[in-house]
Every structure is written in structure tokens, then in C-alpha cells.
Amino acid sequence: MALNARPTQDFVSIKEVRDGIITLKDGGVRAIMMVSSINLSLKAYDEQQAIIMQFQSFLNSLDFPTQISLQSRRLDIRPYLMTLEKQMADQPEPLLKIQTREYMEFIRAFTDSNSIMTKQFFITVPYSTTELSSDSVVSSMFKKKSAPSAKTSEDVLFEEKRSQLEQRMGMIEAGLGRIGLKVAPLDTEAVVELFYKIFNPGDTSTENAGMMGQ
Question: What's the topology of domain 14-72+119-137+150-208?
């Protein structure tokens, strides 16, 4: 008996990704920011304690929820090996060709016997429609009436959400910057690629990732 398989999109709460901002089916929006890391084990004890206290102070300063996530994946060395193969093919010196081939064999053997992982840190910044409703009531009391705009009500609503979201992103960037961490918001392509890898963990290619943004 054939089963009526439901598409993956039915189980994902994402409606669209626009200008790097994720719009959910319930109207809420999310932004994802990539964050650099600090190796505390290489710091002196006093410096470690200072960083921890600064991070604690940063968390206490936030008046909205955030999600901190870590993505750990096995390092894909195939692009690097392809570059070496091209260099070896273009190398006119026979001895250097042999050395390059031996180096490639060493890299393959080492990565096959040792799991070399890459780690990326992300912060998800949320903003909901309920928050926008309360903010809009207050702001409308002090806002002057302006001429009709060519933008649709949906575009205006999106811009209001983005404005509130960018304020929160600025707070996070400033707070983590004081700790010495660098923060970069993901654009649309990077967001789509990130979610494609999450929902397709066995697929190392990203050719089909663009389909999620449609």
C-alpha cells in the first residue's frame, strides 16, 4: 500500500528567508549570527575569570530570549585534495610531484584514522508578532501621519520586524565584542545553506540548498 509522503516543508516552521531574516509561519522572525570562539585553556586564570564574568554580565543584560547553538561537523578535505592534485599535475619537477603525492596519501590516511571536526557557533535572535503588536501601539501614539507609501502592508510589517530585530542584533554584537568575540550575521545564502546541511546531514554538497529559499 502506497503511503502519502508529506514534504519536508510541512514539518519545518520556516515560511521564507528574506534579506537574511527568517520568517516563520506564525509571523515571527529570526536572525542567525555566527560567533567566533575563545580558547579559555590558553588564557591565564585571572583572564579566564574576567571573560566568564563579562559573559555572565552580557547574558544578564539581555531582556529577550536567545538560542546559542554549536554545529560540529567532520572536516571535508576533498576540496583541499583537489587543489593539491591540480598543483601536482602542473608541477614540472618529478621530485616535487612525488613529494606532493606522498603528502596527499598522508593526509588521506590521517583523516581516515582520525575524526577531524570543525566547530561553528551561532546565536539565534528572535522577534515575535506579539512583541511587535505591543511596540506598535506605543509608537503609533507618537508617530506623525505620513503620506501614503507605495509599499504594501506586508512590506511595512516586515520592515518594522527587521528594525526591531536589528536593534537586538546590535546589542548582542556590542556585548560579545566587549568579550573579544566577533559576530557576523548570516545572509540569505548562508542561512539557506545552514538549514540545508541540518536537514541533509549526509549530503556534503550544497547545489540543492537554494531550493529551500524558494
Answer: Alpha-Beta Plaits (3.30.70)
